[in-house]
Design brief:
Blueprint: H1 41-44, H2 49-58, H3 64-70, E1 72-76, H4 86-98, E2 102-105, H5 110-123, E3 129-132, E4 146-147, E5 152-153, H6 163-169, H7 172-187, E6 193-194, H8 219-234, E7 239-245, E8 260-261, H9 266-282, E9 287-290, E10 293-294, H10 309-319, E11 325-327, H11 334-337, H12 342-352, E12 357-358, H13 363-376, H14 381-397, H15 411-414, H16 418-431, E13 433-437, E14 452-457, H17 467-474, E15 481-485, H18 515-525, E16 530-535, H19 552-561, E17 566-570, E18 585-588, H20 594-604
Helix pairs in contact: 2-14, 3-13, 3-14, 6-16, 7-8, 7-16, 8-9, 12-13, 16-20, 17-20, 18-19
């Protein structure tokens, strides 16, 4: 789902682990991309008879209301809640009373997610299918967070860099390993379906939604890395889900807030946007998530692709031969809702060919809409049966008909282990990309007593920002001065106006570094041998990736006016340098996680090689494939 980009992932709880006792989707024997050839397209389109036989035995026992409920999945946090907590009672009541077919689980600790999923499985009449956005591994949702006020990191699942960082490594084996670790850790906590990989080709720097979530701007690179990640996930017992079909990369609108638009020709779509999705289908990807966007080349009615039979049935199902599970992106997003009621959006999603109706703003309304549509003849019961049969067969495939629970005691043996952390650290190191170094500052050659200043730019809730980075730097420069600049929303901010919508998403003023904070930083940096300015801020809900944090240009200009040598480091937004004054050196680390922080510092200190190559173009700065080697 696109919603994930806006969560402050460094400061929230999350969890992930591998399921015990559940049946593997595919053989669990590790394999490398080179030794695991793509599954024939026919294999991706068939389901073993034993699974469909069980599904066909259950299907006649369900009422049309129960069938409709199997298609509806609701969102729940994976946090700890007492058995009588109101927020837990609400989700449990939905599952019990409405007999829902699945859930999408969000942030929590690994043990908490496993415990909550077990509890919700116990409440369900039929076993639940569980999905989660696991774009950078299980830790994208399964991180332990921080205990306050002591700032103690609570651990969690394994974090890989954003997919664009994997693209920067040019190593499909790392993409495969990322998939393996994601599947093993996710299954341990009871997740069956990873809403990953992101197969969007991010060829528009102004994209406010995808950015580093994509492998890059080149369709061949995205295809190669995407298929490797799919295989890593599915060969270790989890369903992979390519998103956001047919491509969310070349847009400047935020699909959470409005209908996005990709206004290119069909020939361009065939040669760029659709290539990674076709490659994933050919490799046997089992799931696909939709794009809430308008693509005039595919449908001239200005309908969100999610609701378009021309896109989801004619193109995806018929022409591209995908017969897996089709999942809508969140139905509470304005990009799909617009002026439609939830009932009408639900029905159009079903008519378009979707199997899973994800996160409707009112699950009961969506279920009733399907029931009424079948009664009126607008939708046939056979159409509903097609989707429910697939969902039931998947539940049998996971062995949920005999055991729907995970072994909570086994979580610690699967999640965040030393063995799983090793490829994640390797990916973080190989992703480091040196874009500019006009004075050959990197690796640093200054004496140990040099005056080095590290300025961290991060949101107030990002407690991990700069901690690992500064700790590694301080081991070489014990007198390191560290300070943090926190962008604030000020009363006279004009970028965006507060506005609510049906999905609860808002356009809010963009935060800015206050002038007083900039002046204080410049005062501290005066006379420094080197200043490192590190940004952990990404795109916001209403600005493009290439729009810099306000106040940051003033900071860099002030440092330049003082003849200070500056290294700019981006941990979140790969397009950070666009719109900013050029600095003596610029390095991209591709994720804000601690492993990437330490990898960036080690690279600049000369403790590790620098080999990353840009998977994107930085207009006017560096071309695709560029990267200085150290």
């Amino acid at each position: 789902m696109a919603r994930a980009w806006f969560l402050p992932l460094s400061a929230v709880l999350a969890a992930g682990c591998a399921a015990a006792g559940a049946r593997s989707v595919t053989p669990a024997t590790p394999a490398t991309p080179s030794s695991a050839p793509a599954a024939p397209r026919t294999e991706a389109r068939t389901t073993p008879r034993s699974h469909t036989e069980w599904a066909d035995s259950v299907l006649p026992t369900l009422t049309i209301r129960q069938k409709a409920a199997q298609m509806v999945w609701v969102w729940t946090l994976g946090d700890y809640t007492a058995v009588d907590a109101p927020q837990y009672a609400t989700i449990e009541k939905q599952i019990t009373d409405l007999e829902l077919g699945g859930i999408i689980v969000s942030v929590g600790g690994p043990m908490d997610i496993a415990t909550k999923v077990n509890a919700l499985q116990r409440a369900a009449k039929l076993p639940l299918l569980v999905g989660a956005d696991l774009e950078t591994g299980a830790a994208f949702r399964a991180r332990g967070g921080w205990f306050l006020p002591n700032a103690i990191e609570l651990g969690g699942a394994t974090s890989f860099p954003y997919q664009m960082g994997i693209g920067a490594t040019r190593d499909p084996k790392l993409a495969y390993e990322m998939g393996r670790v994601t599947a093993e850790e996710g299954r341990a906590m009871g997740i069956h379906m990873a809403f990953a990989p992101v197969l969007d080709v991010n060829n528009n720097p102004k994209n406010p939604v995808i950015s580093a979530r994509s492998f890059g701007e080149d369709a061949r690179l995205v295809s190669e890395m995407g298929t490797a990640l799919v295989k890593g996930i599915q060969e270790h017992g989890m369903l992979a889900t390519g998103k956001h079909f047919p491509g969310h990369g070349d847009t400047e609108q935020n699909s959470h807030l409005e209908l996005s638009r990709v206004n290119v020709s069909r020939a361009r779509l065939d040669s760029v946007e659709l290539k990674p999705f076709q490659a994933a289908i050919d490799a046997g990807v089992r799931g696909m998530m939709t794009f809430h966007g308008d693509l005039p080349a595919l449908d001239t009615t200005h309908t969100a692709a999610t609701l378009s039979p021309r896109v989801m049935t004619d193109l995806l199902r018929t022409q591209m031969r995908f017969n897996g599970l089709l999942v809508t992106d969140a139905l509470d997003m304005n990009g799909v809702l617009g002026s439609l009621s939830m009932a009408e959006a639900t029905l159009r999603a079903v008519e378009a060919g979707n199997d899973v109706l994800l996160m409707p703003s009112d699950a009961k309304v969506s279920i009733q809409a399907v029931v009424d549509a079948v009664a009126s003849g607008r939708i046939t019961e056979a159409r509903i049966n097609d989707s429910v049969r697939k969902l039931l067969a998947a539940k049998h495939e996971f062995g949920l008909h005999t055991n729907r629970f995970v072994d909570v005691e086994a979580v610690r043996a699967k999640v965040g282990t030393v063995a799983n952390q090793a490829p994640a650290r390797d990916a973080a190191a190989k992703a480091i990309t040196l874009v500019r170094d006009s004075l050959s500052l990197v690796p640093f050659k200054m004496p140990r007593q040099a005056k080095v200043v590290s300025i961290t730019v991060s949101s107030r809730v990002d407690l991990s920002a700069g901690r690992g980075f500064d700790a590694e730097l301080r081991s070489a420069y014990p007198n390191l001065l560290s300070l943090t600049l926190t962008p604030e929303v000020v009363a006279d901010a004009t970028a965006g106006a507060a506005a609510g919508n049906a999905g609860g998403y808002k356009v809010t003023p963009d935060p800015a570094i206050l002038p007083a904070s900039v002046e204080n930083a410049l005062s501290i940096a005066r006379g420094a041998d080197l200043v490192l300015v590190s940004s952990y801020v990404g795109a916001t809900s209403n600005t493009a990736s290439m729009v810099p944090t306000r106040g940051l240009p003033e900071l860099l200009n002030g440092l330049r006016a003082g003849n200070t040598k500056v290294v700019l480091v981006s941990f979140n937004n790969p397009y950070l340098q666009l719109g900013l004054p050029l600095t003596e050196a610029h390095l991209i680390a591709w994720s804000p996680w601690t492993s990437s922080q330490r990898a960036a510092a080690r690279a600049m200190l000369g403790r590790a090689p620098i080999t990353g190559k840009l998977p994107i173009t930085l207009p006017g700065i560096a071309s695709y494939g560029f990267g200085l080697t150290r």
